[in-house]
Amino acid sequence: MRTKQNTPGAQALHKPTEPKISRQLHIFSTVIENTDNYLYGRNIPYLLNHLGVPNSFIEKIVGIGTGTDFAQRYGISGDPLTGVAPTQMGDLYMNFGLAGIIIGMALLGFFYRWIFVSLAAVPSPSGIFIYSILWIVMMHGLEQSLSAAYGKALQLFLIAFAIQFFISRVPLLGKARILDR
């Protein structure tokens, strides 16, 4: 039986001796070479997937798939079981070209800074708790598409917010507030 790990496409993308950054550069350069028509944000509704909306419903609206569809469309893998993400810079290029990378990365930098200032710059147990969860997802999300990374971040933010909300309502734990500045 073939699984994701033992398919030829997956083996080509996951060589243990190859540095991870070279795989990301390979994917990004493939995106630049093979993007003929920009998506102009059509793939952004995939962030709804992390809020419970099924892929099949989103694909009907958007008209493109993720993971395996991307890998086959861009010639990264011919294996129907191997899913590959375009990276955030690749996703920006697929949507808006070079201007998307320049403006999008600046906006992402402002967004990361805003999250840091809002949650972690002022010492607050609640803010640091939520920031520590979001930071892991955002840094790991550099290898994913924007909609996947920020859909997951939104999902975890809502979960962490709900946890903090209910903790602040318990009388014994009432000192932990979401916005305790």
In short:
With 181 residues, the chain is an all-alpha fold.
Question: What would you note in describing this structure?
Answer:
It is a single chain. This protein has 181 residues and is mainly alpha-helical. It is built from 7 helices and no strands. It has helices spanning 8-13, 20-34, 55-62, 68-73, 88-119, 125-140, 146-169. Helix 2 crosses helix 5 and helix 6 (125-140) runs antiparallel to helix 7. The radius of gyration is 19 Å and the shape is globular.
Features:
181 residues, mainly alpha, 7 helices, 59% helix, disordered N terminus
Oligomeric state as shown: single chain
Radius of gyration, in Å, reads 19 Å
Which strand-content bin applies to the residues?
A: under 5%
Q: Report the total helices.
A: 7
Low-confidence stretches: 1-11
Q: How many strand segments?
A: 0
- Biggest sheet descriptor: none
Helical content (DSSP H or I, runs of 4+) = 55-70%
* Structural class by secondary-structure content: mainly alpha
For the termini, the CA-CA separation is 55 Å
How are the secondary structure elements laid out?
Blueprint: H1 8-13, H2 20-34, H3 55-62, H4 68-73, H5 88-119, H6 125-140, H7 146-169
Helix pairs in contact: 2-5, 5-6, 6-7
